[in-house]
Design brief:
single chain; 360 residues; TIM Barrel; 8-stranded parallel beta sheet; 8 strands; disordered C terminus
Length: 360
């Protein structure tokens, strides 16, 4: 049976309905998560990815510049109640230097990521963005959590292009249970602010959270469609022993790939990463994600002395590889999937971003 024939095993009517986004229901997505064959869904997603995104894989170099966090999320090793974790903050100059090294290595997007660390003033992050932009032709994605509207506006003015703020789960009760003192409503309001300010916006969810249902996962996909996101980070729940959920079961690779595949089918032209978390639970997890609709990989370019301390989850891969070895490894993995590394900044494929200054 050919690759196309296997894709066609899912009914033509269902495929056309979902790909055209005609009245997709929570029930239909949940039913595919439950009963759809992983191989069929990933083949279908791969065909959608090829049609809407092409064969290029975009590299986003992540700098994890602080592991301080004022939040107390039940699943995250950075949570403020984890007293076993030594904390660090990188100096502004060190962050800029690291970003420039990534740019010199050919990385076109720099992701500045931290816990929700209020130890950095909005002005500090603005200065970091401005210095990087002055010296390197890169896009900048921020992933620094919930802040005030004026902070987001200042960072956009300083030159930030994108903002990643995962919604984690679309179930408001589960969200509040997992994020003490926070609400899904606030998170969604902030995502709205980011769109209003002009960021290319990323959301995303965790697959396999304790108490999560297939209907919740379906809602995650449909919420990201409703939000019209440009990026979607989807990865498995990996329990951290120093958190309240440390003894819970890990999210499965099978379900993570099915959620990723359906996200590609429903969301079409968004950027979807083959996450480090998927690679951490399976040796070839990132390749499997690339074959399930992903078109982004996020190499860690944080100085190696800090990487073991950025413990959102345990067992994270690539914490001791230098940048050259990491990029060489990723190149081979990407090429093994019949894909190639993009040579542009990988801005959103959505029409509203096709302006002269965002031609790539």
């Amino acid at each position: 049976m050919s690759r196309l024939d296997r894709v066609e095993e899912i009914s033509i009517s269902k495929r056309l309905k979902m790909e055209r986004a005609i009245s997709i229901s929570n029930f239909e997505v949940a039913e595919l998560l439950k009963n759809g064959e992983e191989n069929e869904l990933t083949l279908w997603a791969d065909s959608v990815r090829a049609r809407y995104c092409g064969d290029e894989v975009h590299l986003r170099g992540v700098i994890e510049f602080s592991n301080y966090c004022c939040r107390d999320c039940l699943y995250c090793g950075l949570r403020r109640s984890n007293k076993k974790l030594p904390r660090y903050r990188m100096a502004k100059e060190e962050i800029v230097e690291c970003a420039l090294m990534g740019a010199q290595a050919g990385i076109k997007t720099i992701v500045l990521q931290s816990g929700d660390d209020l130890g950095y003033r909005a002005e500090d992050i603005s200065e970091i963005i401005q210095q990087i932009k002055e010296e390197a032709d890169v896009a900048i994605t921020l992933c620094v959590g919930e802040r005030d509207y004026k902070d987001y506006r200042a960072w956009k003015k300083a030159g930030a292009d994108r903002y990643l703020l995962k919604h984690e789960t679309a179930n408001p009760v589960l969200y509040s249970r997992l994020h003490p003192g926070q609400t899904l409503g606030t998170r969604l309001e902030i995502l709205g602010w980011l769109k209003e300010i002009g960021y290319q916006v990323g959301a995303g969810n965790i697959v396999g959270l304790p108490g999560q249902t297939l209907r919740d996962l379906a809602d995650d996909i449909l919420l990201m469609k409703q939000l019209d996101v440009e990026m979607a980070g989807i990865g498995p729940f990996i329990p951290h022993p120093d958190t309240p959920l440390g003894r819970k079961n890990q999210g499965t690779l099978n379900m993570t790939l099915k959620v990723l595949a359906l996200a590609r089918i429903v969301l079409k032209d968004v950027h979807l990463p083959a996450t480090t978390a998927v690679g951490s639970i399976h040796l070839e997890g990132r390749e499997m994600a690339l074959r399930a609709g992903a078109n982004v990989i996020m190499p860690n370019i944080t100085p190696t002395r800090y990487r073991p301390l950025y413990q959102i989850y345990p067992g994270k891969i690539c914490i001791d590889e230098n940048m050259d070895n990491c990029l060489g490894c990723l190149t081979k993995r990407i090429e093994s999937c019949g894909r190639k590394i993009a040579q542009n900044r990988g801005h959103s494929l959505k029409v509203r971003y096709q302006s002269p200054e965002l031609t790539d």
